[in-house]
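Can you give me the bound-state structure? Components:
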Amino acid sequence: DAGVIQSPRHEVTEMGQEVTLRCKPISGHNSLFWYRQTMMRGLELLIYFNNNVPIDDSGMPEDRFSAKMPNASFSTLKIQPSEPRDSAVYFCASINTGGVPNYGYTFGSGTRLTVV
Amino acid sequence: ILNVEQSPQSLHVQEGDSTNFTCSFPSSNFYALHWYRWETAKSPEALFVMTLNGDEKKKGRISATLNTKEGYSYLYIKGSQPEDSATYLCAPDQGGSEKLVFGKGTKLTVNP
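Here's the bound-state model for the whole set.
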């Protein structure tokens, strides 16, 4: 398996533009998580899905952020309109839940977003 | 909000030194404790997932212990090497939700 695949790796956009980040989880994993890494707050959970259903979106900063998971192999995180304070590294992670928790998350390589 | 504390925030050791750091978390509703290793410019990689009080896990020179009653875990590195330089994150899973709340991490630098 190629692991969790995120695209793009880097994104530079102007304030006010729409940004879409993409994630392909590991095949067979039934939970997917979006995290944001900043210097101030470390790794913070934005939203997670179980079996393609959003379970907890309490970490989504505001209405400008939205996430979807239309099927088991694809998720998007959208920011519209983007602002400079959204600049961060966004990670996607997946895990196969249920049963004994022997394995941790598998993280993607992240998308470094810069909003100018 | 789940309070996860890791100490120290950063640590500099010499090659060959053994070191350890701490993760503290609420003991109520405990389900599992995850440790991750995060090298600069890479993504976090899972080291251990621990569930039982008194559990000890080992991977090479790295080991971890767990005390669920008092809410802490220790990570030990024996004979540190420069390639061990990374940020080590812990994250408890409360209630089996699989939703992890990460600590800020301990940044380890091993000098050759």
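A couple of observations. The longest strand of chain A covers residues 42-50. Chain A has no helices and eleven strands.
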